[in-house]
Amino acid sequence: MSSRKVRPDELELWQRVAQTTDRLHPARKPQETMADIFPSDNPSKKRPDEGPKFKVGQKANGHAPSLPGIASAAPKPSLQMDKKAYDRLKRGKLKPQGRIDLHGMTMDQAQPALIAFIMSSYAKDRRLVLVITGKGQGKDREDVGPIPERPGILRRNVPHWLQTPPMAQVVLQVTEAHGRHGGGGAYYVYLRRRR
Length: 195
Prior knowledge:
Layout: H1 8-19, H2 34-37, H3 83-90, E1 98-101, H4 107-123, E2 128-132, H5 153-162, E3 171-176, E4 186-191
Parallel strand pairs: 1-2
Antiparallel strand pairs: 2-4, 3-4
C-alpha cells in the first residue's frame, strides 16, 4: 500500500466542502491544539496540575494507589497501643485470649464470621485475639474456577475489614502474628478497652 500526497485540486475541493458545513455542536469549545495535547518540555511552561518530578533512584513520597476491591497486605502499623505492650506483642510474648480460623472460608463467609468474632471478643472484654487467615493457595493446590485468584485473598482483605465499621471502632491495632502464632498467615488484633 503506497501513500501519496494530496493534490492541490483535491485540497481545494475539500476546503469548499468544509465551508458549506455547520458544526454539529456549536456550544463546544474548539478542539485542543497539538500544543495542548503534547506540551513542550519547557520547564517555564509547567502545568499547574503537575506534581514534583520523580527521578530514578529517588524514594517516593506518599502511598501507592490502591485498587478498588483489592486491599493491600498488612497495613503499616501506626502505633496506637502502648509501646511496651506492642514490643511484647511483636516478640510473641503476649498470649491471645481468643482465636478464629478463617481457613477454607470464602470472602462472603469470612467477613461476617470475623465481624461476629471481633464484636463478641470486645463484648467479653478481651484485649488480644488472633485471626488466622492462612497464607493463601500454595503452588501444589489446583486453581478452582475460571477466574484465577491471587493467593492469600483473605490475608490481604482481613486488615482492610478490620479498619472499616463496625470493627474500626473497637480495633486498636492490627499486626502480623509472631511465628509461634502463625506468622504471615495470622494477625494479632488488639482491641480497645470497654468503657
